[in-house]
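Quick one before lunch.
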Amino acid sequence: MSLCQQILQSQSEENPSRLSIEDALILYEEANLTDLMHVATIHRRLRVPGNHVSYLVDRNVNYTNVCTINCQFCSFYRPPGHPETYLQTTDQISERISQLEEIGGSRVLMQGGVHPDLDLEWYTDLIRELRKRHPSIELDCFSPIEIEGISEICGLPTKRVLEELRSAGMHGLPGGGAEMLVDEVRLDVSPKKGSGENWLRVMREAQELGLTTSATNVIGFGETNLHRLEHMEKVRDLQDEALSKDSTGFTSFISWPVMLENNSLGRRERGTNKYTLGTDSNEYLRHVAISRLFFDNIEHIQASWPTMGTKVAQMALFAGADDIGSTMMEENVVSSSGTTKTSASERELQLIVSRAGFVPVKRDSDYNLLKTKKIIEDIFSPPPTQPN
Ligand code: SF4
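Model of the iron/sulfur cluster complex:
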């Protein structure tokens, strides 16, 4: 039996030991996809028993596209002073949240660029007002790089900034901006974003304050499989630390491939015969399966329908994912670089899940399962009898 098969077999046991980065690399590079997905499904059932797949009814709000960071893979941002810049008002954001309330949503994910002119008070006033107008909506706002930007403007440490935002009513942080936490890759595509350690530090501080956090990972920058595993190891280490302090840590891990339309990263290889950027479905599913095996301390693995399409997202449910993501209602950051579908109704999410053979269940931002209104008929129930 090959070493790869031995690792697969040991990972199929009832109490599999923690997967080392060395063994994960062997699986990443040598295991066939069917075997990987099979073992990842075993792990999914150990961590999230049952046949349900969760989803969230939420809305994305991208309050500004002004940004000074200039990531090479980003087609969304505009530098300060550009004629296409925008900044939404409190009323405009509130109106979007009212539309979410109308469809029974529970969470807003609000993120934008790093705006050089907005001080801490602008953010705390916004959160306080939204909290007042929409008391039942969870506000997950501002990724770590935005928190760093606010900290630079107001001259307070990032943890103080987070404390102020929490006191104003912020519920959590989006996991965005992690991309690849390995500096060799990160600083090549986002030199101004700084070390991956900054993202980890802000997330650590947020977790210490009891804010809800998730972890993300973008692949396809031309990185090696080892880089991808090093990213996962940094997230897993922080999760160990959080759990040892009785914090909930990251609720979930979500990965997707970098999008290459309309950005300088995508233009790098144009006109050459090199194809090192981006990923295909096979590689994405492999990555999802490895993440399920690697994270013995993160409960939920999310499938990404906006970047991979609904069919591949369904396949990801057989590669260890137990969550299909959210309705989003709008998305302007990743979509600027090449995705076409950026919104799904609750009915569509239920259909994606049930057509893959699972039971769709609505959840909140903290993965508490909610009363689920069954919008679709059970596709497995017998068809109604036809009259003669
Ligand atoms: S990805 Fe975020 S930080 Fe980077 S340029 Fe775009 S908006 Fe700015």
